[in-house]
Amino acid sequence: MNYDASFNRFSQRSALGIVFRDNEGFILAAYVYPNEYVADPMTAEAQACLQALVLEEDRSNVAALIKEIKERSRKFAEIIVRFAPRLANRMAHAMTEEGREFSVPAYWIEEVPIRVEEEVAKDQREYSVFTDGDVEGG
After folding, report:
1. I need a labelling partner for 19 at 20 to 30 A (CA). Which of 9, 90, 91, 117 fits?
2. 3-state helix, strand, coil in the chain (%, to 5)
């Protein structure tokens, strides 16, 4: 799963872009979600992370396991979330750009908007460089 957010300080709007892929980098689903009254870029990124996790949990057939993982992770003093460089996350970023055109959430299954397809192709060529089984975003 990759996610990103774009933010417009003047309009206080953000757009979230989330992309789900299989272990070979093929698109499973894509999602854009516009938000209004967003305070700052950090809030937009936090909203994107939360929405990505909610969607991942909702679409998963192992939701009970994910819930248990979350509960158990609270017992640790530190949890590390890895940053995905823009190169690894440009597909989700392209989804945020597309999301600026929407006033309501939109979903795609096993595809992305046409304007994002070029980034998908680039990302699939370089996907193996960034995959090691971790969930990345941001």
Report:
1. 9
2. 45, 20, 35
